[in-house]
Amino acid sequence: MNISLLTMSVKKELWEFNKLLLWVPIIILTMMVAAPLLQLMIIEDYQWNGLLNFLTQLQHRSLDEGLAQFSFAAIQGLFIPFMVVAVIIQLYYFLVCLFDERRDMSIYFWRSMPISDAATIGTKLFTGAFVIPGIFMLAATVTLLIAILLAAVFCLVLSSGYDISLWHIWGSFDIFSNILLIWLSLFPFVLWLFPLFAWLMLMSMFANKAPFLWALLPIIMLVLVEAFIVHYFNFNSSFFIQALTDYFGINDNTLRDNFTHESAMHLMPMKVLMSKVSVIAVAVGAGLMYLTYWLRVNRSHL
């Protein structure tokens, strides 16, 4: 598949979800920008005086690791609402991306195009795994740039109207390097959730009705059966439940194992995600993707 066909295929996938992928990031962006501005507009006098006193103390504070850690935490916190919504839309997309085209029979039209089934499956995986979260991360980045611009205006007002200078603090924020680290975290994030994405695509291709139930019920039945067997035979632990918990769960031990020094705190999200990636899980995801491809080739109707 050449670049033009890949671009056309991705645009086709995005066109089917254009309103969702356009307006949802814009709404979140507007809320994230408007909320602090509204809070600043309705602030009480005593609150404003307290803020000025805090900023007066802050201007005499020397640059330290605490400010750098705070800046990264603030940037990461800004990205979190966008990514939470992006994951929800990702899961929905993977559940319906192959089911809808069989339901409305558009699969036969797209099959008339010079695009193979393998390329189509790969395009849908790429769109759901990278393009959809990329759109929300781009919206988060734009939100951050707007916040930086507003913060610069606020610092200018403080320096000119209240004789409070905070310009020396900007050097400790490492804004662009922190943004780059967050963007790079997308790759281990996709590898981590790749088995889940592949499972949802398989159920989207397999289900004749209600792909959500087909994706959920086998997991529930397996968990219940295993729980019954473990309880009946008095086993010490359950394999499947423990495997799911260990792979998808992020607990205090995971964070502690990947937090070695305060100066490397900005690397912790990347290290945590990389620690969750498993060769076995990626192999399972690849197997599920092959089953999805086989079903598309041999069973394209509902």
Structure write-up:
The protein has 302 residues and is an all-alpha fold. The chain has one domain. It is 79% helix and 0% strand. The protein contains 14 helices and no strands. 20% of the residues are buried.
Contiguous runs where pLDDT drops below 50 for at least 5 residues: none
Extended strand count: 0
Instruction: Choose one word for the global shape.
Output: globular
Helix fraction?
over 70%
Average pLDDT metric? 81
- How far do the termini sit from each other? 27 Å
Number of helices, where a helix is a run of at least 4 consecutive DSSP H or I residues: 14
**Domains counted in the coordinates: how many?**
1
Note the main sheet.
none
Structural class per helix/strand content?
A: mainly alpha
Beta fraction of the residues? under 5%
Topology pattern, helix = H, strand = E: HHHHHHHHHHHHHH
- The Cα radius of gyration reads 24 Å
Please describe the topology of this protein.
Blueprint: H1 3-15, H2 18-41, H3 45-58, H4 65-96, H5 99-103, H6 106-111, H7 117-161, H8 175-184, H9 186-206, H10 211-233, H11 239-248, H12 252-257, H13 268-276, H14 279-298
Helix pairs in contact: 1-7, 2-7, 4-7, 4-8, 4-9, 7-9, 9-10, 9-14
Write a concise keyword list for the protein shown above.
302 residues; 79% helix; single chain; mainly alpha
